[in-house]
Write a structure and sequence with these properties.
Length: 184
Amino acid sequence: MSDENGTRDTPAGSRARDAAQGTPTGQAATPTGPRPEPLRFFGTTWVDHDQGYTARRIAVAVGALLATVVSCLVLRFAYQGLAIADIGSLVTLLVVVMFAICSALAFRHTWDGFGKRPDPDRQASLRGLLAIGFVGSLLAYFFRALTEAPGEKLHREEYETALKQHEKRASRRTGNPSKKRRPS
């Protein structure tokens, strides 16, 4: 590491990566086939469920649940602030209903996002709603982490499809076409 800015002395992907992959220094390793897409908190450990995958899932589930509890405490303090301000029961009710509805919608949107890629335009238009309903998103993350890494099913399907397509393309290209026998 460099003492000045905390960066590595060797450029990313240079000798350290080559040594780890068993290639001689100076020769770039050529990956064959598609690479798995890393997941937040899990990297690519979801592919083979190795390198502490189970411990990471437990940590993510506990962390999401802890964040949900802390968020609910913050919302309770906000509710108490509204009660102390004595702004009226109608406004207080509207705020509670708004958080409940936004949390339910955020839960559903986050849960659906684990199974299919969300539309970027729709995601941008729902950004405010998801921010208000952050408790629902945290709960969705917690419940999904109990069974798998959040988003693992979607990524696994895409990765396996890409592997099959790669194998199909690679099997068609076996042999040297110039050495092919020509019918006489």
